[in-house]
Amino acid sequence: MLTLLLIVLAIVGLLAVMRREAGAVPAIAVLGVLGLVGVLFEAYVIGVILLILAAGVAVTGLPALRRSWLTPRLFTTFKKIAPKVSATERTALEAGSVAWDGELFSGRPNWQALNRYTDDGLSEEEQAFLDNQCAVAAGMCNAWDITQVRADLPQALWDYIKQERFFGMIIPKEYGGLGFSAKAQSMVLQKLSANETLMVTVGVPNSLGPGELLLKYGTQEQKDHYLPRLADGREIPCFGLTGPRAGSDATSLPDIGTVCKEVIDGEEVLGLRLTFEKRWITLAPIATVVGLAFRLFDPDKLLGEEEDRGITLALIPRDTQGMEIGRRHHPIGSPFMNGPIKGKDVFVPLDTIIGGEKMIGQGWRMLVECLSIGRCITLPSGATGTARYALGWSGGFTRVRRQFNVPVAEMEGVQEPLARMAAMAYIAQATVYQTANLIDHGEKPAVPSAILKSQLTEFQRTLLGDAMDVHGGKAVTLGPRNYLGIGYSANPVAITVEGANIMTRNLMIFGQGAIRCHRFVLDELAAKDANDINAFDKAFFGHTGMIFGNAARAFTMGLGIGKPSVPFEGPALAYAQDISRLSAGFGLCADAAMASLGAALKKREMLSARLGDVLSNLYMTSMVLKQWQHGSKVEGEEALLHYSCRFLLHRAEQALVETFDNLPNRAVGKVLNAIVMPTGRRWDKPHDDLARDIAKRVSTHSPLRTKLLANTWDSDDGDFPNPLAQYNALLVDYERAEAIYRTVNKAYAKGELPQTALHPEARVEAGLEAGIVSDEDAVFMREFETKVLEMLTVDDFAYDAFVRDRDTLIDHNAAKSPAENIESAPTPNTTPPAAPSAVDKTPEPETPETPRTR
Ligand SMILES: Cc1cc2nc3c(=O)[nH]c(=O)nc-3n(C[C@H](O)[C@H](O)[C@H](O)COP(=O)(O)OP(=O)(O)OC[C@H]3O[C@@H](n4cnc5c(N)ncnc54)[C@H](O)[C@@H]3O)c2cc1C
């Protein structure tokens, strides 16, 4: 009996010590005292075991004892198995800062650290720009005209965005830019996502590229010359890193610069001779200044002793002799400017190097440092904006589209994707806004930038698929009335650029996070590199304490013992507490995976991706809670909070379970499962009741819909009809219309209206005649139905409208025999697709509606 009691007390005591990461001394005290009690009261076996354990903890836990014999042995082994960190990886790891991502990695997140980032919202000037200039720009876009007719933004829109300094959002006011906060930039790009070509065109110069590079690293002369010209659009920048040989592995770029001298106007000038081939460079076809990444060599040692000077960045004017620029690629779904750049033996003076001579060889560091901010803003904001527009259109369409005599939004099969879309839009909005807020507080969130880029563009992919599904044929049929299909087909661009999603998810989030965000790993690796045994001892045993602490916290919290203290209340409380529990489990699994796989983990990308998913979902849940805590709440939002948090935490747990199941060491997987989920999984997928409630709200005129669509382009005063404004207006009238539908349908079912009144308009007219619909209601319904029909209508075109080469046109219905038809068919066209000039031959598609004049 005493033995059992001592075992229980030892376990409880040790768990309490480990949970608090209280260190070796309390653990030795617990084991020592219980061991002595065992020996004194004749429970010798357990007493001796506990005393031996106490001695073991003393040897490993007390620095003075362990440093003399244990640490040297561990250090020797560590040096053999620790992964090698390449110079490129080290640069990436050292870029940016660690904030909330580090807290989640620690297993014991300090929520006060997140709350420290207060939110002051947008300035009046930023809000005014969002309300006015952004609405005007969005109102000048017609997706059909842009993609199918002119393959460009209209000239008036180019002039407007330059004049209003859309390209200068990140450029400070003293250089003539707008000097906007990260939050404002994000909200501008969300609003401009009404049209993806506009969003990309404005987003790219404000993201990673010459503007940001000059701001951070440019010489004063370069800043003074370029920044004002970039801000007002006199200069259009592009940035060329990618080439045919270097895509995801961008540092393998084969583009070369050689230091040399050239005689210009009789004077010898020190400069670079560049040979390069870049592709997919956004804005290149129209750029006036090209940011270029290349590897610099100095074979004649004109600049110093080193020959290979590393990746270097320069800013080269378009009209530099030898530069081949101007051709276009054809990105899927969106004709934003994108094309190749080439050059052979192009000479540029030394002062074209961004930051001057001192920044030679610093190119990769400069790029990854800038990426940590730009990648948090541009694509995630585009994804969030797209999500919100797609949700707004889908809610509107599914409410006014009736099948089986009811709006399709009333059908559960449609409610499921509608609710999912609402949650993804809500999560994306919170994540991008709160992360932008961290940036406004000076953070450079490197790991979150990979999370946001890949997760939110994946949301966009799912959400656009859902939007297409609930629209049925309406979105499948291309034409000026199709507000969704063109954006849907452009989605792969966001998936691919700024780090393709597969690589970002599988390699970067956990791969970088495990080293960058971990409290001890970077120190351990640095100690290894510096051969510093004391630093290693400190980091390694701190790490060991953290592992035991995480195991104890994950296990006890998994049993429901000891809820962590979090600064949340009400519906957010349980989710915040569970983030703390899962963070402990995640921290433990991350360490177990690193310890059991060592350097091999780098190649186990499927495991790395799942661990990255745990971190990503915990990060996004935290952002949702922060937004909830500090923002004003509207009716129905609580259901969306529950749906979103359950959706994310379910995904986090799923990723953990799949990690346990796939660890090569099955025993480690099973032990982890038992510690982290002692009572099984806690989060099911969101309940159907929540989905029904949310779907109803986003497909009707409700405070929740209004909140989700806040700061989108929703006015109908642009050059072209705005589908979102049209749906919003219909939803305001919907309840009245629904009551009339019900009245006439009921009367029709009872046989009180003529059998030939088959569609709503006919039934309203029949109802008017039968005296069951008032004159005012009939007038109202005629107008309402006309507007609904307009939203349901799709375009059709002349038979030959899509043909580029009229010689290939077959008249299938010519009054000839089939044999004659074959004979007269043109020979197969084996020539490459028509050159841009062939577009001239394309007939103007019939545009069923006349654009509004401004
Ligand atoms: C429309 C468009 C605009 C662009 N704009 C610019 C620009 O302005 N400037 C610029 O410099 N570049 C630009 N790019 C290039 C873009 O950044 C690259 O396309 C991107 O980095 C991926 O390279 P890749 O397409 O060659 O894919 P690849 O590198 O060939 O990759 C193919 C697949 O393999 C995966 N993969 C690669 N390595 C790994 C790995 N280690 N682990 C797991 N998966 C991996 C990738 O995720 C991808 O799915 C643009 C590209 C496009 C299409």
Main features:
two-stranded antiparallel sheet; alpha+beta; seven-stranded mixed β-sheet; binds flavin-adenine dinucleotide; 9 strands; 33 helices; disordered C terminus; single chain; Butyryl-CoA Dehydrogenase, subunit A, domain 2
Q: Any ligands, ions or cofactors bound here, and which?
A: flavin-adenine dinucleotide
Major beta-sheet overview: 7 strands, mixed
- Work out the strand percent: 5-15%
Coarse morphology: flat
Radius of gyration (Å): 32 Å
Q: How helix-rich are the residues, as a percent range?
A: 55-70%
The overall pLDDT, averaged over residues, is: 91
Transmembrane segments: 43-65
Domain Acyl-CoA oxidase/dehydrogenase middle: 238-337
Region (Disordered): 814-854
Pathway: Lipid metabolism; fatty acid beta-oxidation
Fold and architecture overview:
There is one protein chain. The protein is of the alpha+beta class and 854 residues long. Among the domains are: 2-61, no CATH class; 124-130 and 160-372, Butyryl-CoA Dehydrogenase, subunit A, domain 2 (Beta Barrel), CATH 2.40.110.10; 723-746 and 753-792, no CATH class; 799-854, no CATH class. The chain contains 33 helices and nine strands. The strands form two sheets. Strands 1, 2, 3, 4, 5, 6 and 7 form a seven-stranded mixed sheet that branches. A hairpin with a 2-residue loop joins β8 (402-403) and β9 (406-407). Mean pLDDT is 91; it is low at 822-854. The structure holds flavin-adenine dinucleotide (FAD). Flavin-adenine dinucleotide binds next to β1, β3, α20 and α21. Residues 238-337 form the Acyl-CoA oxidase/dehydrogenase middle domain. Pathway: Lipid metabolism; fatty acid beta-oxidation. Belongs to the acyl-CoA dehydrogenase family. Keywords: FAD, Flavoprotein, Membrane, Oxidoreductase, Transmembrane, Transmembrane helix.
